[in-house]
Amino acid sequence: xxxxxxxxxxxxxxxxxxxxxxxxxxxxxxxxxxxxxxxxxxxxxxxxxxxxxxxxxxxxxxxxxxxxxxxxxxxxxxxxxxxxxxxxxxxxxxxxxxxxxxxxxxxxxxxxxxxxxxxxxxxxxxxxxxxxxxxxxxxxxxxxxxxxxxxxxxxxxxxxxxxxxxxxxxxxxxxxxxxxxxxxxxxxxxxxxxxxxxxxxxxxxxxxxxxxxxxxxxxxxxxxxxxxxxxxxxxxxxxxxxxxxxxxxxxxxxxxxxxxxxxxxxxxxxxxxxxxxxxxxxxxxxxxxxxxxxxxxxxxxxxxxxxxxxxxxxxxxxxxxxxxxxxxxxxxxxxxxxxxxxxxxxxxxxxxxxxxxxxxxxxxxxxx
Length: 368
Description:
Elements: H1 3-8, H2 10-13, H3 19-28, E1 30-34, H4 40-50, E2 54-58, H5 83-94, E3 99-103, H6 112-116, E4 121-124, H7 129-142, E5 146-152, E6 155-161, H8 173-176, H9 189-192, H10 197-215, E7 224-229, E8 234-239, H11 252-257, H12 260-263, E9 272-273, H13 275-284, E10 287-291, E11 307-308, E12 326-330, H14 335-347, E13 353-356, H15 359-366
Helix pairs in contact: 4-5, 4-10, 13-15
């Protein structure tokens, strides 16, 4: 460690529990951050500032204006640019000691093992179940510690998986959730929203766990899930036990053949209508529009007439549909409306029922 590095990291080297030995471990460490969004943004900045020697960033998305409320790594000038490119530029500017590797790809079971194998710790900043299960399984196969994070509305969770505790016990994400929830049972941040500071808090907690794992100071959250509620500023945590019946791909070949979309029930397709086509249908008339969002979900729609039947009530409040009209179902992003279309098709197989592609958010965006 040279004089400049010693000065840069002096405040943490001063810590009795830390010292130069821990700093050397950080400088030699390789950390992979999957997702440069709300969780990844703060995690990347603090990992780089702390002196992690090599940081890999996996993301194939570009910066969007809706990201800026919580993804503090980006500015308005970055809109339309790949997140990995912006993140690498900012990280290297923040700390030239850090080697930053861009993986501008969508991580899946065809490339995950090749990407993850070169890193010591994986930080999961993704926001969907199929990718979470896939990253978990890859880390189990490669024996890599996994730092998990998730946020929604005013709450967040952080945990450490695939890392043995003092008794030699280690659990993984499948021990917590052996099976994924149905797509209609959960909503995402894009549907339900999230307070911008919550990903910052959880992402920073994830970075803390990574630093503890690398330097071996303190006690990581292995086999433990910590939950934070911003509205009441409360924390609670619970343990995760190893499940002897947990099943996951046991070999790289099984992993690469596993269909994670099918496993998470998101592969089925339903008839859809694009936002521009929906606008034309509204002008032509003879269309019934059903809003399957919850009554308090925003934004309120005043641009056209619709009836509100939340998805959870659709089986008991089935509307009367006829073959003389086309039915369009919408929600925020198109996930719940797709499930609603399946339900209505079972009841009315002869009626033309469509899901609004991209949900009402996409339609409003197209009609600004």
